[in-house]
Write a structure and sequence with these properties.
The chain is mainly β and 178 residues long. 15% of the residues lie in helices and 39% in strands. InterPro entries: CheW (IPR039315), CheW-like_dom_sf (IPR036061), CheW-lke_dom (IPR002545).
Length: 178
């Protein structure tokens, strides 16, 4: 009887999540699929003057201008290799819950596979890399370590301000302020 009571009080089993896998050089990384809006082939981009070297540019997509970063260049300083498996992945970037999500493009190498696993399989790896806060916990499997990339932590305040400037304020709101 106590086993039945214990089972009723047990926490619900966490559901598995789907992850998009990619590589930076020989290292493996993952994005949570719920953050991915669309996977596109690599497209021509318009460069942004005076932007950090890892900001690849912008492109027009479905009526919006979408900024794109090269995750390989951001992480290790080397641009992603132009392979047939290099993709432009649109993610829903939402660093603050109070704001609407915006598209951000990521250039990712070998972004062709997925993995279904429990998010709890990813564990902290013991480093506090303040220069790369987007690099989250790791999961070990037969191929080695797989690291979770947290989309909402990709950009610091300065680059966020460059790529996603504050929307222009409504003139009526400015007149109403004291």
């Amino acid at each position: 009887m106590s086993e039945i009571i214990a089972k009723r009080g047990a926490a619900p089993v966490a559901k598995q999540a789907l992850f998009l896998l990619f590589r930076i050089g020989s290292e493996r990384y993952a994005l949570r699929a719920t953050e991915v809006a669309e996977v596109l082939p690599r497209l021509p981009l318009k460069p942004i003057a005076r932007a950090p070297h890892w900001v690849a540019g912008v492109f027009a997509y479905r009526g919006a201008v979408v900024p794109v970063i090269d995750l390989s260049a951001l992480t290790f300083g080397q641009p992603a290799e132009a392979r047939t498996s290099t993709r432009l992945v649109l993610v829903n970037y939402q660093p603050e819950q109070a704001q609407a999500a915006q598209w951000l493009g990521l250039i990712l190498e070998q972004a062709t596979d997925t993995l279904r696993c429990h998010p709890q399989d990813f564990q902290p790896y013991g480093l506090n890399n303040r220069e790369a806060p987007y690099l989250g916990p790791v999961r070990e499997d037969a191929q080695g370590l797989l690291q979770w990339v947290r989309v909402n932590d990709l950009l610091d305040d300065a680059v966020r301000g460059l790529l996603f400037p504050d929307p222009p304020r409504d003139p009526a709101q400015l007149e109403a302020q004291p």
